[in-house]
Amino acid sequence: MPKKWYRLDTAALIFPAITRRDWSNAFRVSACLREDVDTQILQRAVDALRPRFPSYYVTLRKGVFWYYLEESREPVTVQQDYAYPLTFMSSRELKHNCLRVLVYRNRIAVEFFHSLADGRGGSVYLCNLIACYLKLKEGISIPCEGLIRDLNETPPPEELEDSFLKNAAELASGRKEERSYHLHGTREDHGFKTLTTGIVETQTLLDTAHRYGVTVTALLAAVMAESIIAMQNEEKPRRRQRPVKITIPVDLRRLYGSRTLRNFSLVLNIGVDPRFGDYTLEELCRSIYHELCASATPQNMAGMIAANVQPQKNIVLRLAPVSVKNLVMDAVYRRSGESGGSLNISNITKLPLPEIMLRYIERMEFIIGPQRSYPNNCSVMSFGGKTYINMIRNIRESELERRFFSRLVELGIAVEIECNRR
After folding, report:
1. Rg of the Cα trace of the chain?
2. CATH topology agreement for domains 5-166 and 169-419
3. DSSP strand E in 63-218: where?
4. Do 49 and 151 form a contact (C-beta atoms < 8 A)?
5. Is the pLDDT of residue 1 over 70?
6. What is the C-alpha separation between 29 and 351, in angstroms, rounded?
7. Which of 102, 140, 281, 322 would suit a FRET pair with 87, their CA atoms being 20 to 30 Å apart?
8. What does the pLDDT look like over 192-217, one tens digit per residue?
C-alpha cells in the first residue's frame, strides 16, 4: 500500500528552507501529572493516536519542487527527556519522525517540528495523548468534549486542511516594516538553551491587566516592551534607537471558525518607537492593546494571509526546483521574517478539558525556542489557576528576565522562579 502524503500548509513551507544547525524551528507542549508516568503505557497511548492524528506521524521529504510530509512507517518511540528543551531536530531525525514524545518522572512533553502544527494544534495532540494514557492506566471514561476527540472516528477533512488557502483575500497586504531593535549577547556553547519559568497566580495577573483596561497578552507585551526599551536606552542614544515591537501570534481559528490541526496562525508586530519620546507603562498598555485589537480583524488578517498564499500561485516560483525556492524563501525571511519584531510572546489561553482529567494533571506548559536572529523568546500558558511564563534564551546574559519579572513583582504580581540553570 502506498504511503499517504500531505502538502505542507502555507505557513509550514518556510520552515524547512530556513532551519539551521544552530536553530531548529520547533516548539514544546508539556504536562506534569500527579504521579510518575508509566512509559510502557504511554507508548501504547502514542501508538493508539496514530490513526486519529495521521498528519503528526509523518516524515519530512524533499521533492523536486516542494518539501512534503509523508506517512512514517516507523513508530514514534517514547524517550527519556535527558537534556534541555528543544534540542536541535536534524534533517536525519526529520526523515524518521517530525515529533518527539519525552518523559521525565511525572512530565510528558511533546516537541513538534513547526511544519506539522502550531501551538494550538500541538496542544490538541498532547491533551488527547494524556486522555488516552489516563484511560489505559486508570481505566476511566473520558468524554469527548473540549479538545478531546473520539479516537475511533475517521479524521474529518477540515482538521487536515490548509485553512490559509481557504481564507485568503484577493488583495495581499504589504510586508514592509521598519527593522526593530534586537537584543544580543554571548552565545551559549553547544546550543544550550536557558529556560526561566515565572509562575504567577492567574487571577492576580488578570486583575492587574483589567486594572490597566487590557488583556493579559497586552499587559505582558507592554511590560516586555518597557524592559527592552530600558535596555536599549542604556546601549545607545535616542536618535540611534530602533522601534521596539513585540511579535504576537494570532490564532486564526477563532476569526474564521477553522477546525484545522495544522498551522493556522499569523504574527503581528505590535509596539512603539522610543525615538519619539518616553512611555509610561499605562501608555504602553493602551497603545499595544488598541493596535492589537485594530490589527487582529478578519479583514486585515485575510490580507496578510494573501501575502503568504500568493507566492505559491506564482508560476515561475512554482516551477523552480526546491533548492532555488529555499534560496528565495531564506532571503525573504532574512529581510522581513523577523526584522519587524524584537521578541515573541506566544500565549496559549486556557485549554478546555473534561473535568475528570483535571484531577490527574498538575500543570501544563508551552515553550517556543529562540528565533534565528534574536536570542530571547517568551511563551505563556495557564492551567489550574497558575500562569506559566517561559522565557528562553541561547545567550548567557539574563538581564531581560531580571527586568521583566522584577517589574511584574513591582505591579503586585508575586512570581515564583524556576530555572534549568544553576
Report:
1. 21
2. yes
3. 67-71, 79-80, 99-104, 107-113, 194-201
4. yes
5. no
6. 12
7. 322
8. 899 999 999 999 999 999 999 999 99
Question: 146: phi > 0 → left, psi -120 to 50 → alpha, else beta; which?
Answer: left
Domain ranges of the chain: 5-166, 169-419
Read out DSSP for 49-90? HTTTSGGGSEEEEE-SS-EEEEE--S----EE--SSSS----
Residue at grid coordinates 525556542? 369
Q: How confident is the model at residue 146 (pLDDT cuts 50, 70, 90)?
A: very high
Nearest Cα neighbor of 98 from 127, 132, 131, 68 is 68
Q: Look up the pTM and report it.
A: 0.95
Question: Which three cell numbers mark 290?
Answer: 488598541
Dmax over CA atoms of the chain, in Å, equals 65
Q: Which CATH superfamily is domain 169-419 in?
A: Nonribosomal peptide synthetase, condensation domain (3.30.559.30)
Q: What is the pLDDT of residues 227-245, one digit of tens each?
A: 999 999 999 999 999 999 9
